[in-house]
Amino acid sequence: MTETPRHAQTTLTIETRGTGLYPFSGSVDRWLREIGARMGVATIFCRHTSASLTIQENADPAVLHDLSEFFDRIAPENTPWFRHMQEGPDDMPAHIRSALTDVSLTVPVSGGGLALGTWQEIYLFEHRRIPHARVVVLHFAGY
Amino acid sequence: MTETPRHAQTTLTIETRGTGLYPFSGSVDRWLREIGARMGVATIFCRHTSASLTIQENADPAVLHDLSEFFDRIAPENTPWFRHMQEGPDDMPAHIRSALTDVSLTVPVSGGGLALGTWQEIYLFEHRRIPHARVVVLHFAGY
Amino acid sequence: MTETPRHAQTTLTIETRGTGLYPFSGSVDRWLREIGARMGVATIFCRHTSASLTIQENADPAVLHDLSEFFDRIAPENTPWFRHMQEGPDDMPAHIRSALTDVSLTVPVSGGGLALGTWQEIYLFEHRRIPHARVVVLHFAGY
Predict the structure, then answer these.
(1) Residue A1 lies in a domain
(2) In sequence order, what DSSP letters do the residues of B82-105 get, joined into one string?
(3) How many domains does chain A have?
(4) For residue B1, is pLDDT > 80?
(5) Which residues have CB under 8 Å from B89's CB, separation 6+?
(6) Nearest-CA distance from B2 to chain C in Å?
(7) I need a labelling partner for A15 at 20 to 30 A (CA). Which of B4, B40, B63, B98 fits?
(8) Test the C interface: residue of B21, B28, B63 with most C CBs within 10 Å
(9) What is the average pLDDT value for chain C, to the nearest integer?
(10) How would residue B72 be classed by pLDDT, with cut points 50, 70 and 90?
């Protein structure tokens, strides 16, 4: 191919209202269409350490429930040996859950949109109880 | 450098015969050679939510055994509080194990192949018992 | 944009002195400035299976303590069912902790540096007790 590839970047703000998984593949696809992306890779980057990213099933809401419950149980609030307590009981679990999931995802783009599988959805995983405005950087490289 | 970089993309199908780790760095390297890739980055993306990716040691098979056993124990089948049961007892553990490992990996390419360390191998991590045809998207960006 | 993007690559060696989290965002930013990177994506890749990468809070050292403690407890040394023992009691836990965290990170670059959030720092997570020289590949794609 002799066409010159290009890079584009934007930020997306996701308003959260407590812990849980917030889907946003649609917003990424909308941006890719706006900039006329055809083929390449999209990088999705979460600029926080108490919220993270994950790709999970988009069909049965019970999957999201069980996934949240798993992370609640593996890194519970008020774990007696935690030293980092001053930002609230949900802060240290939030950091651990972020480390166990993803802060950046790189997803191929083809046919003008994300090349996700049929059952895949990109989620912002909010680990804190208080509402937050979470900033995600979107980057496209390709044609 | 004044040379224009390029992007290339393909898909790879990996046939699985039950849970476990299936190495496929060789297939990625073969594709990179086919397209004449020299230097850049390769993105490897798994289009599923009950199989995932991981980079692990390629030397002692006991490492893969212990790794599988760890994930079996951390998210066991028939966990009493699971709600998502209708796709079988191995489905919800598969989603959790996928969330804990990787869905996308970006690996530098140099000298015409993946710049993996001596002991690193890329694995598809199958989390379900029934055979599946798993689709992985490969993307190259570079020279 | 009609400007042609470019790719650049280097390696970074991080000397570790036992288990723990070693910050190195500063070294990545320094390299980005050296090569005159303005906008794009940086890929950071760890060439090992007993050390890994993670992005975590850079403010309270207690966060790093609790994070290390969490990984010590979730995959403890001398777990009775481990088969991979010949490289020492800290080797199999190291592989598991690597699988649970990251081997590659892709971070957007804007304004000439990493587009990290205010509280984010990139760490090499050393999982072994003996000092090691860990090699990280840095890749930049963009303008």
Answers:
(1) no
(2) ----TT-TTHHHHHHHHHHSBSEE
(3) 1
(4) no
(5) B77, B78
(6) 8
(7) B98
(8) B63
(9) 97
(10) very high
Note the ipTM here: 0.97
* β partners of residue C44: C105, C138
Q: What are phi and psi of B31, to 5 degrees?
A: -65, -40
Question: Looking at chain A, which residue has its C-alpha nearest residue C3?
Answer: A6
A123: amino acid identity, one letter: Y
**Contact at CB, A115 and B47, closer than 8 angstroms:** yes
- Its pTM stands at 0.98
Q: Which of A1, A13, A49, A92 should one mutate to test binding to chain C, selecting the residue with the greatest count of C CBs within 10 A?
A: A49
Asked whether residue C108 is domain-assigned, the answer is: yes
Task: Answer for the pair B45, A106: CB distance below 8 angstroms, yes or no.
Answer: yes
C10 burial via Cβ count (<10 Å: 0-12, 13-18, 19+): middle
B7 part of a folded domain? no
Helical ranges in chain B per DSSP H: 25-34, 61-74, 91-100
Closest-CA residue of C relative to A99 is C101
CATH value at residue C89: 2.60.120.460
Q: What is chain C's pLDDT, residue by residue, as a tens digit (143 residues)?
A: 568 999 999 999 999 999 999 999 999 999 999 999 999 999 999 999 999 999 999 999 999 999 999 999 999 999 999 999 999 999 999 999 999 999 999 999 999 999 999 999 999 999 999 999 999 999 999 99
d(CA C60, CA A8): 34
In a domain, A63, yes or no: yes
> What's the confidence (pLDDT) of residue A47?
98
Res. A1: pLDDT tops 90: no
Domain range for residue C23? 6-142
